[in-house]
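Something for you to look into today, if you have time. I want to see for myself how the chain folds. Leave the record below and I will have a look.
***
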Amino acid sequence: MQRRAFLKTSVSLGALGLTASGAISSGRAATSPAVGATSPPRGKGLPADWRSLRKFDAHNHVFGFGHRPNSNWAEVEDLIEAADALGIQRLFCSRPVTGGIMADNEVVRESNNAVLAAMKRYPERISGYCFVQPGNGAAALDEIDRCLDAGMIGVKLYNQFKYTDPLVFPVAEKCIQRRIPFLGHSAFLTDPKTLAAQPKTSHALDFCALSQRYPELLLILGHVNGGGDWEWAIKGLRECRNVFLDTSGSVLNDQTIERCVRELGHERVLFATDATMEGCVGKVLSADLTSEQREDIFWRNFQRILDRRTA
């Protein structure tokens, strides 16, 4: 079922079990709840103001090619409609070339142009990460500059290379130079079939190695619940204090958020959905957190990363 049809016809919103009747319809950010607001006791329901809590989705995607003539914008419009229903003010999106394909820079540029078109259509709602394929060398670095100069806020890498590969190092250095976040696809794969299909997928220790080489890098491990052994991934980041982690992924295990906070500290945890929007909002809302911790995870931690560009 299309997300738009789901939101219009369903009685409830996925894991939240709540109607969409109070959806934010404007593109402006909602105000934060009053200082001193408290979370309900665990098991006693969601915060009364859950929809108005400011939320920045640090990891999502734009599909389609909106920059092409006669493009169909339905998927992007569905994304915005879902964000409205869930009170997500800003969506930080990329369009990576997946499957380990060694895309040339022309293909990469086409993907990034799709994100730029979505940013232009929804300037108050969508911000972009620049996807690059490190094997393109100097052209990849030029593409980062092009995307940033057009308004993007960071870089997204997929699984074309392990992040310990020297080909990735110039990309990390460019991110440091431009003071932007580096969001990386991740998974600790445990089944032989998936591992054989994605042999260059980076896991937590690969992120740690890159962070140790470049401690000033704003490095984000993407979708802790994206597949594989997520508990191992969290433990793998314990000693790598410069690596952030985003909460996205379609695996909605109980206690994920609490485990992240307990092992890493809530300041390193970033709210994100990777398109599992209802479930990922729900797992932060239902987690045993203070109001301050929940707000930090929902938006303030990522805002602090963005603020470093102008520091």
About this structure: Confidence is low (pLDDT under 50) at residues 1-38. The chain has one domain: 53-310. The chain has eleven helices and eight strands. The radius of gyration is 19 Å.
